[in-house]
Amino acid sequence: MPEILLAARNVTKQFPGVLANDKISAQLRPGRILALLGENGAGKSTLVNILFGMYRPDSGEVIIKDEVVDLHGPDDAISRGIGMVHQHFQLVPPMRVVENIVLGAEPSKRGLVDLAEARKRVVELSQRYGLEIDPDALVEDLPVGMQQRVEILKALYREADVLILDEPTGVLTPQEADHLLSVLRDLTETGLGIVFITHKLREVLAIADDIVVLRNGRVIGETTPADTNENGLAEMMVGRSVVLRVEKSAAEPTDVVLAVDELEVNDDRGQLAVDGLSFEVRAGEILGIAGVEGNGQRELVEAVTGLRQPLSGTMRINGEEVTNGSARDISKRGVAHIPEDREKHGVIAVYSLAENSVLNRYHRSPFSFRGILRRDVIDRHAEDVVEEFDVRTPSIAVTASSLSGGNKQKLIVGREFSDDIELLIAAQPTRGIDIGAIEFIHRRILEQRDKGAAVLLVSAELDEILGLSDRIAVLYDGKLMDVLDAQDADRERVGLLMAGITQ
Amino acid sequence: MAPKRRHLLALLMVLGLVTAAACGSDDGGGVSGGYSIGLVTDTGKVDDKSFNQSAWEGAQQGAADIPASATASYIETEESKDYANNIQLFLDDGAKVIVTVGFGLGEATIEAAKANPDVMFIGVDQWQDDALPNLAGLMFPEATAGFMAGALAGMLTETDIVGAVLGTDLVPPVVFFKEGWENGARYTNPDVQTISTYHPGGLDVAFGDPEWGATTARQALDQGADIIFGAGGATGNGALIEVAGEAGALCVGVDSDQWFTVPEAHPCLVTSAMKLIDVGVAELIGQAYAGTMQGGNFFGEVGLAPFHDFDGIVTDEMRATLDDVMAGLADGSINPMPE
Amino acid sequence: MTTRQKQMLYVGATLIVVIAWTFYTADGPQTTAVLAGTVRAATLLVLGAMCGMIGERSGVVNIGIEGQFLLSAFAAFTIASMTGSLFLGTVAGVGMGLIMGWMLAAMAVGLKVDQIIAGTVLNIAALGLTSFFYDRSRSLGMGKYTNIDLGPLADIPLVGTVFFSRPPLTYLTMVLLVVVHVALFRSVWGMRTRAIGEHPGAADTVGIDVLKLRYFNVTIAGGLAGLGGSYLALEAVGTFSRAMSGGRGFLALAVMIFGRRTPFGAYAAALFFGFTTALQNQFQLNSTFDIPPQFVGMLPFVVTIIVVALSGLIGSMRDPAALGQVYEKG
Amino acid sequence: MSRSLLRTVATPLAAVVFGLLIGAVLILSQNASPITAYSALVVGGLGDADSLLRTLQKATPLIFGGLAVAFAFKAGMFNIGGQGQLLVGAVFAAGVGFGVDGLPMVVHLPAALVAGALAGAVWGGIAGALKATTGAHEVIVTIMLNFVAGNLTDWLSANPWKDNSGNNIVARTPLVEDSATIPTLGAVPVGFVLALVVAAACWFVLERTTYGFEVRSVGHNRNAAQYSGIKVGWIMASTMAVAGMLAGLGGAVESLGVDGRFEAGVNVGLGFEGITIALLARANPLGVIPAALLVGLMEAGASRMQFKAGVAPELIDVIQALILFFVAAPIIIRWVLRMRADNSEQLQLGAGWGRS
Fold it and tell me: Which of A373, A377, A428 is most worth mutating to test chain D (most D CB atoms within 10 A of its CB)?
């Protein structure tokens, strides 16, 4: 058995304008779990992409099983026993589980895929590691937890000695995450090494043997769970002491702003995604929607914002029915929306910041007059947003594509918050951005609540839900499992509800 | 910065060079020399194996026939809006005779003839309502040609089914050919069944779709037709070639003797319903040179092309009937297109 | 395919057979003629559809099939008339198709040109080049491909004439239908091809070279369109003429969509379109209706529009997820 | 300003030069002289007042056709249906032009133009509406509608609207009334002026109005546009209708200003050249004008090129394809000229505000 399974030595990688990895070194030994910890943009993904052969380092070397290697692509890494479970699953949705697992390394006879043989091997593998799966199910029909299992089996099928997992618990309930951690621990018994990438301190302490903390593309420190604690890790990760809890006053809810009754909504594939939901959000409170992604959150948000036609049920805003209102009808009523997918739904990449700053209001006075845009007014508005919401940019004339994720998100928040808001719908408002921006946006959301807005917060980050919400509704399979007051909610209880377990 | 600008500069220089070249002499070409004859095609090519080609051959023949040294040259029209301009190019070049091919050029030809009384114009397929002294419209009775071909087909068919694969009913000569063909077949064979199809597409594709022509000819063969008339540019040629692949079946070409223009059709081509455009054009050019050309309408000859390889199957009896038909058509006792 | 769909398929097939037989007993020659014309018109369409299908399954839209047909037909005809060999002509047509496929791949995959624009370039270039270089004095002295009877099979009434008395490239097309079907849905290549069309990122992470495979597939698919061009010049027609593809490359795309990007589905769709063409001819031949040919001629195009619209409405059709998108690594 | 303008035009300009250079090689391969050929081309298109008039006349429908493609591009749609939209526009404009008489010009001419524009709008709108409601791809639908339009207009001009004067046998409508004829001001056809005005209007609508903002938003990011409350389906349908209207207007100008009537088969191919023009202009409505003038010049001079140099006029089509290729794949030009890549070099089918 090699001494070092996988290592980076002084790896440097430069992207236009960013030094993503600056002389990074880290190593993984057999049977160990190495945690790479860092906030978004710290260089974790770049590093693992280099280790997996997706990128080539500008300088420095990659070592696999005690040998310096020159990886030309993922197939190089795979053939050397590296397996990777990506944060965004790399599965082909309309193909079967077994096809996904063997893709790229298919058992074949004269060029034809030997599906029977493939199925046999997959069943064998899943039994050996205790990862039950239906080999003939279509991946698109599986829940995310199962899809992750397919990803792991994919790596094991290729006889990986090293498993790299990129933020694997983001899509799981706390209980599922715990189960995953124990599966991973079992896997190391056979000598497998695991690289575990995360920004969640608790998980690092729970599972890692070795911890490497990255910040701004550099290694900031190496430690072990025995030698540190959450606060210590957080300080290393961010470079200053961070407030792990959001400071907020008690809510003072008043009138019902949003009332949803028996709402049913289909997803894109025509299947019921929101199944008879009823809830209310009052002015001055934050209702958090907790749940594993894909349990109807997106469809709920799209229905409430007028982007998706509900099948049945009613929605009222300030007492007026808006069930079949268009997106514009609803936004006219003082509804702001921070969409979950910033790049896809939030900004138009080739538009300037000025144009992006009026995406939701270009048609209104004073930004246009009788159908003609008033560019001077728009520009002034954009300057205001940039200043007030601390968007770091050389000018409002540059395109949105030139901004970092956090600055894009601040631009969106600034755009949505520039009017008086009756109802704020915030979906995954801090996904993938740095801690500074997260704190900024959390403060702004609370500010809106305190000004009397009703806030519907949808987040897959349980910590965010627990930290910000006044009440917590848990969504599972399109149904509302329960609505808890924030003080009654804890990870355990919400986690079980997220898994559909009521006690 | 600097290198970038240099490349742009280089680019501009190349452009300048091209422009300079363009502004250079344009007199090197041209066609003038001796008695010059110009031909403007319809939107088609001088080697279209059809009427443009016939007219061009006629123009060349005419140039060769006249005693003085004469040259013939052509312009192929790309777009029908260019008719007038293309005629003007020859006028500017001092052409003595200008042949314009196709009824589409009729109006442009009349305009040019009015404006240039010293130049002789020959308009192929252009009917003249009012005779201009320097413009001869070369017309052909297509129905007569079609009738003769049909009469032969009526006698030759063994299945009593004859088919026609045609360009488009938007072009009247095609309709005349078809009606003449069907009436001729019925004239010699009252039991005959005539099955005919026009291309279903627009004017822009109707003459350029040999695949449809071939498929449709096959469809007609499959239901028993044993002689197919292909009339419609490349579309008709497709039909002829298809029939060539069917043992025992015969085909009839159109416009010129297609024995020479579609050699692939030799195995089936019994004759062609000809408009002798080349003969007519050459003759009119001769008249123009001699100063005897009359304005108004000039009727060119139509007829059947030689039977070539199939000379043997046309019996003396058939030939006699054909002669009668021809005589009847000539003296008006047979109307190829009643109504 | 669901059981219900299968049932409908069987019912539909039985119905077609029954109707065909009824007509056949009523008027044998006409029925044979219409159905033979159907099969004939379908061959070119399905070759184009298979070309488009392999591209689209890999995530590359090919709107240049029309141009591929035309330039390949030109090459096939020119070489065949120069060498006097239909076989060499066919090879040249396929070769030209491969070159055109490679050019499409170079633009759409390599240079990351918008795929629709890349295909349009091919179409315009093919029309210009063939018109510019066409030498009309050429001809096929030896004639075009002729029918080959498949022994006793050809003697079966109706079916024999319609399917088993055909020229060689039509048989080859039928064989290719099976080959492409097996290759797409059973082979390692096919599985990888479908993967790069649906989720190129996933394919990349398991070591499949997405760009290389797309290059390969679009090029190979061009060979199918090239065979279509050879078929057009050397089997269907027996000569070349300007713009002779006449929009069939576009119809092939509709056939591909209607056939849900499967070879047999596309063949069924192509037969359907071939049938509308043959039927419209038959109406005219029989003088069934006194409808101007211009209106009858709209039939296939109107049907295409309806089909494309309906397949969107019913939602029975889903594009490969990565269709039309440039793949950037990483 | 001039620097950035230079950079903007560098790629199309280089594409034209490369196209002409390769064209020169083809001319040489035909044993003709490129210099004679190209000089004849230019003289044929610019040599005298008549040539200039023809160039302008040829450029006019190309501008409309180019706008029809460019406008749809802005909403992320590819309108290959310019041909069919132009045909129906041409035939209906002619229909009103000859079918109605006794109207003063100020009423009749606009009415005929509007008839053409509306017919084109309906033809384009069908494709847009089908795309919006059923997802039917506009490329397939517009191609099919081209065929249908060809058959429909052929039939109209050969049957109900046929010119039965004299011995006419051609499938064409009667001449339009004088009151519906677009006049010529000096050497400049008024239709060309109209095309310039419409191009400027397109630019203004796209860049300065809320509707244009919506169109461009849909073109750049359909999802974000939908999330910001824009009715994406309506924008797609209406954009295609506007595109069809532009092409239909081009057809109307042809019927009323150039041909004086509609004639079957006369306007073939005009609509397709709009694609080349729009790409050459990088979908910029103002850029469409020089692009159309260039192509118009080549087409006006093609006859003279054949006459003087014996080069087949199809060479123009080959050169156009080459230019299109180089515009579509600017990377080749950059490589040859060693220019540095920047955003303006990409063929972005739409850009931000003219903030250069």
Answer: A373
Q: Per mean pLDDT, which range of C122-136, C193-207, D146-160 is the poorest?
A: C122-136
Q: Which of D208, D210, D223 sits opposite A363 (nearest CB)?
A: D210
B191 within some domain? yes
pLDDT digits (tens, 9 = 90+) for B223-244: 899 999 999 888 999 999 999 9
- Assigned domain for B133 exists: yes
Among A238, A265, A294, the domain-final residue is: A238
Q: Which CATH class is domain C35-314?
A: mainly alpha
Most D-contacting residue of A350, A370, A416 (CB-CB within 10 A), to test interface: A350
Taking only the tens place, the pLDDT of each residue in A82-114 is: 999 988 889 999 999 999 999 998 999 999 999
In chain C, where the domains are located: 35-314
Is C40 in Cβ contact with B215 (below 8 Å)? yes
Give the CATH number, domain containing residue B131: 3.40.50.2300
> Chain C, 161-190: which have a CB under 8 Å from a chain B CB?
161
| ipTM attached to this prediction | 0.85
Flag whether the pTM goes above 0.80: yes
Same domain, B59 and B107: yes
**d(C-alpha A152, C-alpha A122), whole Å:** 12
Same domain, A177 and A322: no
Tens of pLDDT, residues D6-39: 767 788 888 889 899 999 998 888 888 898 999 9
Domain count, chain B: 2
Distance CA C284, CA C281 (A): 5
Cβ contact C205–A90 (<8 Å): yes
Q: What is the spatial distance between Cα B339 and Cα C319, in angstroms, rounded to a whole number? A: 57
Residues B263, B209 within the same domain:
yes
Q: For residue B115, how many other CB atoms are within 10 A of its CB?
A: 11
Alpha-carbon span B73 to C165, nearest angstrom: 49
* Domain with residues D59-301, CATH architecture: Orthogonal Bundle (1.10)
DSSP letter assigned to residue D267: T
- Tokens representing B41? 């095609």
Q: What stretches of A158-311 adopt beta strand conformation (E)?
A: 162-166, 193-198, 210-215, 218-223, 256-266, 272-282, 286-290
Flag whether B244 is in a domain.
yes
Confidence check: pLDDT of C238 > 70: yes
Q: Are residues A266 and A388 in the same domain?
A: yes
Q: Provide the strand spans (E) within chain B.
A: 35-40, 70-75, 97-101, 120-124, 135-139, 161-166, 193-198, 227-231, 250-255, 269-275, 296-299, 302-304
Of all helices (H) and strands (E), which one includes residue C264? helix C263-285
H-state helical runs in A269-374: 297-304, 327-332, 353-356
Using the Cβ of C1 and the Cβ atoms of chain A, whether some distance falls under 8 Å is answered with no
B28 and D57 within 8 Å at the Cβ level: the answer is: no
Domain containing A380 equals 256-498
For C141, the closest of B47, B223, B263 (CB atoms) is B263
> pLDDT for D160-184, tens place per residue?
999 888 777 778 899 999 999 998 8
CA-nearest of D217, D237, D73 to A346 is D217
* pLDDT over 50 (residue A445): yes
Which residues form the domain of B132? Answer: 35-140+278-299
Min Cα–Cα distance to chain D from C242, Å? 11
Instruction: Write down which residue in A176, A206, A238 finishes a domain.
Output: A238
List of residues 6+ apart from B66 with CB closer than 8 A: B35, B285, B286, B289
pLDDT of C197 reads: 92
Across A382-501, where does the E strand assignment appear? 423-427, 454-458, 471-476, 479-485
Q: How many domains does chain A have?
A: 2
For the stretch C156-206, pLDDT in tens is 877 777 788 889 999 999 999 999 999 999 999 999 999 999 999 899 888
What are the φ and ψ backbone dihedral angles of A58, each rounded to 5 degrees? -70, -40
Radius of gyration of chain D (CA): 21
